[in-house]
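so my prof wants the structure for this chain in the tokens format not the other one, which i didnt know existed until like an hour ago. anyway here's the sequence
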Amino acid sequence: QFGDEHGLGINEAGVESVEVIKGPASLLYGSDALGGVLYLNPEKFALSGETHGDLSSTYFSNTLGTSTNLGVKTSGEKLKFLARGSYSSFSDYETGADYRVTNSRFNEKDIKTGVQYLGTKFKSTLRYNYNRSNIGIAEEVGEQSRSKDLELPFQEIDNHILSLENTIFFNNSSLDVKVGYLFNDRREFEDDPATAALRLKLHTFNYDVKYNLPELGKFETIVGLQGMFQNNKNDGEEILIPDANTTDIGLLATSHYHMEKIDLQAGIRFDTRKIESDGARNPFDANYIQALNKTFTSFTAALGAKMDLVENLSARVNLASGFRAPNLAELTSNGVHEGTNRYEKGNANLTNEQNFQADVSMEYRNKHIEVFANGFYNAVNNYIFISPTDEAIDDTPVYDYLQNNATLYGGEFGFHLHPHPLDWLHLESSFETVTGKLNNDNYLPLIPANSLRNTFRVELNDGKTRKFSSAFITLESTFDQKNVSNFETRTGGYSLLSAGIESSFQLQKVLLKIGLNGTNLTNKEYISHLSRFKPEGIFNIGRSINVNLKIEI
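here's what i got, hopefully its the right format
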């Protein structure tokens, strides 16, 4: 990605699950996982000898939107195949104040396909994902319309992701080799829908080689080599960041030691990143972007333990260091960043972010209840953040990238009650909190407010035709955010009510799922502290009633 303002470019259709990985295991995925890794598991292939298909569609009343996806997968003894396509289209969203946010409309097309071959000594998986997103850039509350046709300005984004994963099995060990290619083509249209004012082409090649050594007693050890080559190319009238090449290389090793009531895991890695960028614009202009040639290196390490303290009670402790090199946008930006209402100036003098994090979690679990408590403390040296100045260029406020030492700390606490024999009854509650401060005791920007989420859910499995039914009601309360940075304002708290019901019916070989749910049922007028529309006083989305139908064969 060009910076942390951009999404993943991945549609949820075809994603099996999402995991959060912390501690030494996160070293397997990269050095810049300062707080952990968000890992997206792709859709699984069908079991050998099986063929399945499914079609689902959802209607969203607030945006008059629809989202439809179709999937099919089939597997032989050795060869497996799957494919999925989806299309979504939405009008401008309506707030709780009964106005629509002009040009917040968007549409998305997504195709995922994969093939896997299982040999006697190896497994090979090839996957491809194409995503096309057309996104309106909302700037104000203007013409009220239910149209789905984009207005200027808007972005058109193509994402191509190709990955090949090979696992070779030896007698007592295995070798994993992954290579990937990503092409992101981002086009921004401002005055003419036929000519892109800003166009960025990002080519990324990744490789990941890991060797799983033979077990040595109770030790399981992995060593690996990872790297990336990335090329950014401008092909538009405007330039926000220059043409550049980024090269990453990383070496890693992790080891897992198993005992009866305790598991220990440790890891270490070395990383280097080189960024080379060209100069951009007229050297005599104030907005000239100078050429850059910088190299960043760092060692990181982690140590973790999982312990069974007493019956039903377990604990985890992780101690980890991490490093993140500044990205191209933070180093070289010099221009208006559309959608943020900011003129952003990069800082070529930025250095590595280096952190040390400690996190502790405890969980008590029996047949009636699960109770958990997770806490973390993250000290970051040379934390990179964006800060306003007193300057304005063409009536757009100027923001600079700065560095300072910072700390982030917080946690999550909650329980899940499902009393036996009332196994159909579920009561869940969780509280989340995070605080971020610079070493001068000023608060960090864009930190979410504390929140409390309570859910009452029933699940029934009662019949040959009606296989499964569930219903839920959730109240999510977000507290006032008073811990704000110098350029932020406080944000008031709010509570959002949602509810839903779903039933599944088995009709011979067809499984039919029907669902109805509603979000923000009280049509609350509220603004999230992290909303980009907060400075303009534009509310978040209001009530939406959503209907879902899914057919599985």
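also thought this was worth mentioning. Residues 200 and 234 are 5 Å apart (CA to CA).
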